[in-house]
Amino acid sequence: MNPSIDFHAFAPELVLAATIVVVLLVDLVSDRGKWLASRLATIGVLAAVVPIVTLAVDGADRSMFGGAYVVDNYALALKAFFLLVTYLTLLLSLDYIAEGDYYEGEYYFLLLISVLGMLVMTSARDLISIFIALETISLPTFVLVGWRKHDTRSNEAAIKYYLFGVLSSAVMLFGMSYVFGLSGSTLLTDIAQYASTDGVPALFAVGIFFTLAGFAFKVSAVPFHFWAPDTYEGSPTPVTAFLSVASKAGGFVALLSVVYFGFFPSGESWQPVLWVLAAASMTLGNLAALRQTNIIRLLAYSSIAQGGFILVPLAVAGDGTAAQSAFEAVVIYLLIYGAMNLGAFAVVIAAARRTRSAEISSFAGLGRTAPVLAVTMTMFLFSLTGIPPFAGWFAKFVMFRAVLDAGTPAAVVLGVIAAVNSVIAFFYYVGVARQMWYREPASDAGPTVVPAALGAAIAITTAVVVVIGVYPQPFARIGEAAFGG
Amino acid sequence: MNWFDSWALSLAVFLPLVGMLVLLAVPTADEQLAKIVALVTTVATFGVTVALAIGFDYDATGKLQYVVDKRWIDVISTRYHVGIDGISLPLLLLSAFITVLCVVYSWNHFPEPHSPKAFLALMLLLEVGLNGTFVAQDLILFFIFFELVLLPMFFMIGVWGGPNREYASIKFFIFTMFGSAFMLLGFLALFWKLGTFQIPELVTMGGGDIVRGTQNLIFAGLFLGFAIKVPMFPFHTWLPDAHTEAPTVGSVLLAAIMLKLGTYGFVRIALPVLPEAAETWAPWIGLLAVIGIVYGALCCLAQRDMKRLIAFSSVAHMGFVMLGIATLTDFGINAAVFGMVAHGLITGMLFFLAGSVQYRFDTREMSRLGGLLTLTPKMGWILGFCAMASLGLPGLAGFWGEFPAILSAYEPAAGLPIETFRTFMVIAAIGTVLAAGYLLWMLQRVVFGTVGSEWSGRHFHDVNVEEWVAWTPMLALIAVLGVYPQLLFRVTDGAVAKVVSEVSQVIG
Fold first, then answer.
1. A434: which chain B residues are within 8 Å (Cβ-Cβ)?
2. pLDDT value of position A2
3. Mean of the per-residue pLDDT values of chain A
4. Which of A329, A388, B81, B175 could join B144 via S-S bond, C-beta 3.0 to 4.6 A?
5. Helices A33-47 and A73-99, interaxial angle, to 10°?
6. Does residue A170 form part of some domain?
7. In chain A, which residues have their Cβ closer than 8 Å to the Cβ of B144?
8. At B79, which helix (H) or strand (E)?
9. Chain B residue numbers touching A423 (CB-CB < 8 A)
10. Cα–Cα dist A393/A472, whole Å
11. How far apart are CA A435 and CA A360, in angstroms?
């Protein structure tokens, strides 16, 4: 049988794939290849958004390969999210990579391959395609993490990330094999059908457990988070930003698909697992973040904690009337988290251009030396805390709404844990703000020069954080449309 | 509706935001221009609120006026819904009024590290949050404005504050944030049960079919949010630190307006929306209120720092306000609203004076001060006047907040334990004696007495122009409201009666 291919549905992936090939070739043949490669990558990423818009206007759901690959609103919304996040990551990378001792062309090539995996992930509705997408996301990042080739910490980070990544893949495959063995299919819809029948053996729960554990590595949920702080610290900072936002979101999309389209009927198997992961990630991530003196490690632990907040709605999704609001909460939280976390990383990169340091103390007196950077960083930090009128409040809001829709005691307890944790998180976020505003700058402080691309990234993320904070309707609509399928 | 009716409230809230954005565009070096922009903005905002007050229909103070109800975030059923009634109007006026005076007062003494532009920008942002909270008629809108207040105050204390400013600013933020996290959970629970965030609708439902146990739980969430802001004993510990460390203007805004957000929340949301829970909680609120009155007063007697003494006196005064609210009676809540305004004026003045004393003598230690009447006689008399107002001397504004609140505890709403409230009444009355004690004690140490040897022979500038401009209107209002309290009661009464009737319909 020769499957018919709907090229319109594949257009975003095709545009991106073409860009990847061009980027690689240009770097090979042209003298100005490095400069050209980075610009072409940026243009290609934006060009790939165009077919997403046409597909969204068209509106019809498209299903291919017997339901293994679906293009619906959910897939489109997240494809657009991944491409825009990549665009921002590229803005962060342009000057950083060009000025440092890095391979340039290959950097963009590998980054875009990882993004291709993300685009596939949003549409994957089959265990095998999900696995392949996840590996496509991960493999290039193993290399990118070690991009500071003369830095032993970067090498350590890459090895650690690689070993943990491979281990988690193995665990996930092990779990998937159980799921497949029992349900007789890798298609998520078939698995859902099997899960809703009576007398599902306990072994199915074991399969679910290991599959979720594999994803837990990808989203660096506690207790599967050990790789994250070292890897984040050792990587070039734009790669860290990419890992903590795009790659992490990739893991969450996989989790969302698997839970909602596959395992949903056996709530008793996956809810407790996710409940524990959520509670542990929030609490331990926050407590560890309190003790950090390095801004990258702080953001690493903060992203673990934020991951915990994103898991909260998933963990209660099966209870009460929470199915829809939990789904929307995860999508909306991811969108907002992407903007505010990338913004924070952008400021960190900008500030480090002068200080050449990632210590939190190097932010001392930033309010005096670079007030605009300090104001935007303050906005991102308070947004991450969840203080209105910055977008973070809405992310927390939809999370709590899902918890109350579930309404079970377990859900309410998780909600209270989340509430307490958002207060704890304030301490370390404010620690950075305190350095910027309450401390005197170092005496040798010169001006901080922010290149245009980096400035654009900061401007875009600031705009999102403020506009969505005051008028969250657009993101809320996207969440709603995504659930509509 | 004409143009003004539909835009005035939004103007009153967002004009300061516009002013702030203009201010940010002013070059940092041009301090004079920054001050003028801030002054023009706050005066214009105050002008709008005065126009609101003139156009207000005083025959229907219980009805929401100048209502604007527009789509905002459909997906979570939240609307941009604003309006004012007789309870909001005086507080909105107070907020816009005090902010103008704060700008005037700051004119020539900006605390270290100076930078008037940033300081004034924060002050304007603070005004957005304060005004917005008083006009919001949607729970989420209310929440956003309520939280918006935190950031500017946090930086005001943390950057321009005293020696221990970091600790104080973070403590302030953590306490209020902790409260509002639970308040938000309470709001969500209300939505989940009753299906709307609109305050007027929720009030009409009067708790709907929520069973009493659940009502009590939701009320607990709201209580945490509001009680920390008030602050009620035992959640008050952030207040003395925040006040002591905050710059003068920060203290004034904090005492005069920000604390009212909590009490206003009780009257506007907690009581009428959850009447049954209010009935259950009222004796406990009353108990915490009288503990606050006595405890605050005793703490005052133990202070050596003049500003810290005034801060603790706030705890005691807000105790009277909360006692009035806890009676759930027309009389008590009217007294409470009056008390909010009076406390705003009087304690605001006291903080101004403490700031001016420190500005001149570089200390607030009462043991080192003394003989203010000899050194700066005008300031001494003003301090005496304000202390008298604060201790509730009849004929000045403080009296009409305190005395009716105590009286109202004699006859609380039907359904509340009368004996308990009468006991509260007695304790609160003892509290007034203590208040007289600590205020007179402060007067004796600071205003009277002999001039300390370190000051003798030195010349100190008495009340200067900015101070006169900032203080005269407040002093005049304290006297006017004291002599003619009807001015305010007439505005609040209708709105309070409506709140009480909503409550008593349910608990009858």
1. 158, 166, 170
2. 56
3. 90
4. A388
5. 160
6. no
7. 388-389, 393
8. strand B78-84
9. 174, 177-178, 181
10. 10
11. 7
pLDDT band of A382, cuts 50, 70, 90: very high
B314 residue type, one letter: S
pLDDT tens sequence across B17-33:
999 999 988 888 888 89
Does residue A29 lie within any of the structural domains?
Answer: no
Q: Which two tokens stand for residue B376?
A: 């700066």
Residues of B in CB contact (< 8 Å) with A are 72-76, 140, 143-144, 147-148, 150-151, 155, 158-159, 165-166, 170, 173-174, 177-178, 181-182, 184-185, 188-189, 192
Residue A261's SS3 state is helix
Q: What is the mean pLDDT of residues A356-367?
A: 86
Please indicate whether, in this complex, the C-beta atoms of A388 and B148 are within 8 angstroms of each other: yes
Is there a cis peptide before residue A140, judged by omega within 30 degrees of 0?
A: no
Any domain includes A72:
no
pLDDT score at B163: 87
Contact (CB<8Å) A388/B143: yes
Give the model's pLDDT for residue A444: 66
Does A474 contact B at CB distance below 8 Å?
Answer: no
Closest residue by Cα to residue B366 from B468, B452, B242, B425: B452
CB pairs under 8 A between A and B: 76
- CB neighbours (10 Å) of residue B411? 16
Domain extent, residue A435, equals 266-485
Q: How many domains does chain A have?
A: 1
Chain A residue numbers with beta carbons less than 8 Å from the beta carbon of B158 are 434, 437-438
Return the SS3 of B2: coil
Q: What angle do CA B153, B235, B506 make, to 5 degrees?
A: 105
At A6 the pLDDT is 81
What's the confidence (pLDDT) of residue A423?
Answer: 87
Q: Is the pLDDT of residue A59 over 90?
A: no
Amino acid at B106: S
B195–chain A nearest CA distance, Å: 12
Residue B366 pLDDT exceeds 60: yes
Is A238 an interface residue toward B (CB < 8 Å)? no
Q: Which of B150, B166, B192 sits opposite A387 (nearest CB)?
A: B150
Q: Is the pLDDT of residue B201 over 80?
A: yes
Tell me the C-alpha distance between A80 and A318, whole Å: 27
Q: Which residues pair with A126 in a beta bridge?
A: A187
Whether A431 is covered by a domain: the verdict is: yes
Element (H, E) at A71: strand A69-71
Q: Tell me how far apart the alpha carbons of residues B250 and B2 are, in angstroms, rounded to a whole number.
A: 37
Residue-wise pLDDT for A242-253, tens only, equals: 999 999 999 999
- The Cα diameter of chain A in Å comes to 72
Confidence (pLDDT) at B181: 85
Give the list of residues 6+ apart from residue A280 with CB closer than 8 angstroms, or none: A221, A222, A223, A308
pLDDT in tens, A255-267: 999 999 999 888 8
* Shortest CA distance from A401: residue in chain B: B188
CA distance B278 to B271: 5
Q: Which of A388, A427, A473 sits opposite B73 (nearest CB)?
A: A473
SS3 of B193-224: the string is HHCCCEHHHHHHHCCCCCCHHHHHHHHHHHHH
The helix (run of H) or strand (run of E) holding residue B73 is strand B65-73
Contacting residues of B for A407, CB less than 8 Å apart: 192
The answer to whether the beta carbons of residues A264 and A192 sit under 8 Å apart is: yes
Q: Which residues are CB-contacts of B36 (< 8 A; sequence separation ≥ 6)?
A: none
Greater confidence (A353 vs B422) lies with B422
State whether residue A422 sits within 8 Å of chain B by CB: yes
Cβ B189–A397 below 8 Å, yes or no?
no
One DSSP character per residue, B386-417 reads HHHHHTT-TTSHHHHHHHHHHHHTTSPPTTS-
Q: What is the mean pLDDT of residues A53-72?
A: 86
